[in-house]
């Protein structure tokens, strides 16, 4: 991973892996390793495989199948809002 | 997992190429990390502006230290500082190591195929180093192959150490030079293609665990070629750096 520049608009996203840091502040376990079901198309996959679109105030995870939003994190500094309505479930393995 | 921001101290620096440098960081309280994880680094300007970037961990160390290798991007906000300015004794805000998916599990006995595009070699180097640590889990006896696509010999990270690792009968390292071949090489430089890829990696019949890391276009193209060649998508794990690079 490294500094990123959206030189090519077709490839301006990273993996869901890259959301592990911000999400680690909210969850006790690594959520990027959890399987989630897209509420829009029903695709079920590990969140690390979602497309992550970082922006100045948070991040979006989009379904790699239908590109709808799975997860939206907005960080205002003193408040973090997590919108999960694009996920119909999350499944975590017990270690 | 360490959550939230912590202060790390830079305890050593090492040039890898003209554009890249490895920083060894000490994170008090850290007790090792998994091969393939990354850390987030946050820089704060005097006016309060912050920039956060993710950097893969290159090392496989058991204690409170880890290495990140950073390549400078011309228009980067964070990498020029880390490559040109940070000095031993400086402190950095670090979150992590984090990430539980793009990691090598030493208890997995599967053969491993690593495929790097440029600086994408960094987390794969952590996996090679972890494998070389020679533990008792089944994975330490598994064959490891690295296919490393890089512009030229001057752009190779960890060259000497890769040569040492490749002396193991379990490890094979193959370079694809895309712009400049090494002096004396009879192979002209050229981008990786599907045919070269197929002959350079472990075959689908070995059912290898595949880790691909590089620029987004590189990763997507290589993953598609592997799937077309018969590798199961379920065995392929990817880490994309974003839109800075080109296709293979």
What is the assigned CATH homologous superfamily of the largest domain in chain B?
Nucleotide-binding domain of ferredoxin-NADP reductase (FNR) module
| Count of individual domains of chain B | 2
Q: Give the averaged pLDDT of chain B, no decimals.
A: 93
The low-confidence parts of chain B are none
Number of helices of chain A: 1
Strand order of the largest sheet of chain B: 4-3-6-1-2-5
Structure description:
The complex is a heterodimer of chains A (95) and B (248). Chain A has a five-stranded antiparallel beta sheet, with no helix packed on it. Chain A has one domain. Chain A is mainly beta. Chain A has one helix and eight strands, in the order βαβββββββ. In chain A, a hairpin with a 6-residue loop joins β5 and β6. Chain A is 5% helix and 37% strand. Chain B is an alpha/beta fold. Chain B folds into two domains: 94 residues, Translation factors (Elongation Factor Tu (Ef-tu), domain 3), CATH 2.40.30; 129 residues, Nucleotide-binding domain of ferredoxin-NADP reductase (FNR) module (Rossmann fold, 3-Layer(aba) Sandwich). Chain B is built from five helices and eleven strands. In chain B, the strands form two sheets. Chain B has a six-stranded antiparallel beta sheet with strand order 4-3-6-1-2-5. In chain B, strands 9-8-7-10-11 form a five-stranded parallel beta sheet, sandwiched between helices. In chain B, β1 and β2 form a beta hairpin. At the A-B interface, β1 and α1 of A face β3, β4, β6, α5 and β11 of B.
């Amino acid at each position: 991973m490294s500094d990123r520049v959206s030189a090519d608009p077709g490839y301006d996203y990273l993996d869901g892996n890259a959301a592990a840091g911000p999400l680690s502040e909210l969850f006790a376990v690594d959520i990027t390793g959890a399987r989630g079901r897209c509420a829009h198309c029903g695709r079920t996959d590990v969140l690390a495989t979602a497309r992550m679109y970082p922006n100045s105030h948070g991040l979006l995870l989009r379904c790699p199948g239908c590109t709808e939003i799975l997860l939206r994190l907005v960080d205002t500094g003193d408040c973090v809002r997590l919108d999960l309505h694009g996920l119909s479930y999350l499944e975590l393995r017990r270690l | 997992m360490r959550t939230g921001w912590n202060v790390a101290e830079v305890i050593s620096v090492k040039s890898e190429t003209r554009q890249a440098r490895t920083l060894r960081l000490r994170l008090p309280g850290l007790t090792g990390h998994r091969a393939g994880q990354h850390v987030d680094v946050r820089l704060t300007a005097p006016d309060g502006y912050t920039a956060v970037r993710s950097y893969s961990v290159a090392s496989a160390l058991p204690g409170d230290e880890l290495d990140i290798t950073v390549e400078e991007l011309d228009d980067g906000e964070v990498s020029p500082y880390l490559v040109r300015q940070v000095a031993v004794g400086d402190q950095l805000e670090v979150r992590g190591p984090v990430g539980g998916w793009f990691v090598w599990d030493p208890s997995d006995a599967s053969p491993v195929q690593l495929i790097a595009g440029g600086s994408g070699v960094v987390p794969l180097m952590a996996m090679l180093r972890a494998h070389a640590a020679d533990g008792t889990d089944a994975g330490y006896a598994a064959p490891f192959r690295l296919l490393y696509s890089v512009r030229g010999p001057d752009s190779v990270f960890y060259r000497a150490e890769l040569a040492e690792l490749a002396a193991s009968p379990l490890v094979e390292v193959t370079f694809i030079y895309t712009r400049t071949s090494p002096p004396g090489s009879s192979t002209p430089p050229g981008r990786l293609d599907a045919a070269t890829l197929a002959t350079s990696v472990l075959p689908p019949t070995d059912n290898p665990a595949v880790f691909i890391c590089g620029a987004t276009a590189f990763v997507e193209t290589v993953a598609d070629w592997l799937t077309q060649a018969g590798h199961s998508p379920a065995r392929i794990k990817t880490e994309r750096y974003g839109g800075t690079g080109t296709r293979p």
